[in-house]
Structures are given as C-alpha cells and as structure tokens.
Amino acid sequence: MPDSFDIAVVGGGMVGAVLAVALDRAGFRVALIEAREPVPLASDDEYDLRVSAVSPASRRLLENLELWADLDHHRVAVYRGMRVWEGGGRAQLEFEHTALGLPELGHIIENRLIVDAAWRALRNVTCFCPAELGDLSVTANAANLTLADGRELRARLVVGAEGAGSPVRRFAGIDTVGWPYRQRCTVGTVATERPHQSIAWQRYIPTGPVAFLPMADGRCSLAWHADDRLADELRDLDDAAFAERLTRASGGILGRVTRVDSRAAFPLRLMHATDYVRPRIVLAGDAAHVLHPMAGQGANLGFMDVAALVEVLEQSRQSGRDPGDERRLRRYQRRRKVDNLAMMAVTDGIKRVFGIEDPALSRLRDRGIAAVQDLAPLKQLMMRQAVGLGGDLPPLLK
C-alpha cells in the first residue's frame, strides 16, 4: 500500500519548505517532494545571487514558525528606508521605517538561508528527495501521486509549490495567463564607493529599473532589469566595463561601482494561474503567480499564501471537513487571488509607464513622484501594503 498523508507538498524551495513546516506545526501529516536536496550555506561562503526583500509580515511568519532565530543573522541585512526616482527627473520618493513606527522596512536575505532553516525544521515531515512527480490523479477520496522512480503515495490534498513551471498545475489542467516582458534581470554582488546606509535604492530608466539592495557586509545586491538587447550587451562586458555602465545607469547614487564580484541573469515574465484550486489540489507561490520583481514582492506574496492556506486548512479540520474539500479551498483562492492580482497589476503598470520614452511623460512622472512624496497619508498606505501588515491577518502573521 502507498504511504498515506494528509497533505503532500510538491516543491521544497522557500514557499514549499516553509509551508511544510507550518503544516507540520499545525499537526498535519505531511510529505515533501523535492527534486534536489538543498545545499546549506556556510557562514564564510560567498553571498548567493538570489536574495529576497523579506517584509515585516513575512518576518512574523518566520518568527511564529521558530525559523527566524535559526537564520545566520551575520548574513541578514536590515533596510530602514527606500529611495525611488526617475532617471531624468529631480523628484525622489522616500520611504522611512519611522513613518509606520517600525524598527525597519524589511530585511535582505539570501533565499538559501530561508530554505536551509526550513529544511532543518522538518521534524515530522516525510521527505522524498531527490524525487520528481511523475504522475498525479485524483479520486473522490484521495490524490494519488507517482514519483518518477515509481514510488507511490496518497494524500488528501496536494499543494503545488514547485515554481512557475509547476507539474502539479499541469497535471491539474489549470491554465495560466500572462506574457514575457522581453527583459532580463541581471543580479550580482557589487561594492560601491559610498555606503548603502541600510537603504534600498531604485532608479527607473526607460530600459528598466536599477536597484541596489543593502547587504550585511556593506556591499550591495544588484537587480538591474534591462530589455533583452541591453541585457545581451551587459552579459558580454568584462567586470570593469560592467561596473562603469552600472555607475552611469544608477546615476552614481552611491558613487562609483568599484567591484563586481559575481553576476547572472534570468528572464522576466508575468504569469497568473486562472485557478488556484481543483479538487484535492491547490497552488501556492510561483506555481500560482509570477510578477515583475521591481517591487521585490514575489517571496512575500508566496509567504502570504502560506499563512492564508494554513488558516483555511485549520478551519476545515476544526469543522470536521476534509483538507481536500474544494469548496473550503475556494476561501483561500478568494482571499489570495485579489491581493496577488492587485500587486501584479501595480508592478505591471509601473513597468509600462516608466518604459515609455517621452519627454512630456517624463516630466509628468517626475511631478507625480513629487506629489506622492508630499502626501504623507498616501505614502503610509503604500508602505503598509508593502510591509504586509494591513487588513485582516491570518494567525501566522499575528
């Protein structure tokens, strides 16, 4: 007989691993299926290229799951402010942690640090790793999973949390809508002439925004969103020439870029699942939604999915319902789809507006930035949305 579980989570990255921990702590019998075993970061390893801006709400989630204390905090950088401006304009939009009475606006954390902490906390979770999903079928009473190596297991609910190419989503027959941006994000670790001051800096230019995110050792994590043609040029530059181009693209906001330690690039797209739910199947994180990374909200939206899904599943159990009950799971979809679509619409709209090269529109954008800067209530509303502490919060965020 196949092993039986309450919930099988497919995907052991940040969202999937944290979800598995949360479900285990909530008392569910959980299986985690992941293709590659995570490689922990040693304290003296070079910084990983993939980092996330973790909001105060996401920090609360990690604290409530007792994961925050297990992070290597020597590698975690706090940011207390943000500066946003347009390349040709004079106005600057400034966000400060004091406006919300918070000790910080967030933390810049390597994705692998969170994954490592979550995997070390999988106390009662049965891990199938390395393993890939070979087939998935659903009956009235259970979902049947067959792994690529022939092993079989059953679960009352399957969560697809394995990223944008989600096999669970494909097996469930869930369609997606979206489009490529014809941009790539060049990420890297760079040193600058002036200190970052624990501020996240982002300059908008027509080919895409350039962002410097503060790192714990004084360097910056780079996120340079560039149209494909420019991204090709940047890829072919040596480090010295790349540093010079980056200094110009950033407007020299932190002085010269003095060193480029590593870099890579990945394509950008918008993708949204038409449904998050099927009988005994639910999607979370990038399996359900992928947005432009300019606002740094991808990981935070995934963590909000985790908190909302766990709340719905606990409520179902309390009322004696099956965790795979589609009608109950629709509550999760209704709650998260609205928030995710709103953030996707904002980032897509900003990308398009700032991508138009027109002097008149540039002047209008500059005035708009200045107007928002002068409207404290509007800035506070924007900040509360970004830090994730507004509205009716699930228990894991309290």
Describe this structure in words.
The protein has 398 residues and is of the alpha+beta class. The protein has a domain at 3-82 and 107-178 and 270-352: FAD/NAD(P)-binding domain (3-Layer(bba) Sandwich), CATH 3.50.50. Helices cover 34% and strands 30% of the residues. It has 10 helices and 19 strands. It has helices at residues 14-25, 56-64, 111-120, 167-172, 228-236, 239-249, 298-318, 326-354, 359-374, 376-387; strands spanning 3-10, 30-33, 51-54, 77-79, 81-86, 92-96, 106-110, 126-128, 133-138, 143-147, 152-160, 176-192, 199-204, 210-214, 220-227, 257-273, 277-278, 281-283, 289-290. Strands 1, 2, 8, 9, 10, 11, 17 and 18 form an 8-stranded mixed beta sheet that branches. Strand 17 and strand 18 form a beta hairpin. The longest helix is centred in the last third of the chain and has 29 residues, at 326-354. The mean pLDDT is 91. Residues 6-337 form the FAD-binding domain. Pathway: Cofactor biosynthesis; ubiquinone biosynthesis. Pfam families: FAD_binding_3. Belongs to the UbiH/COQ6 family.
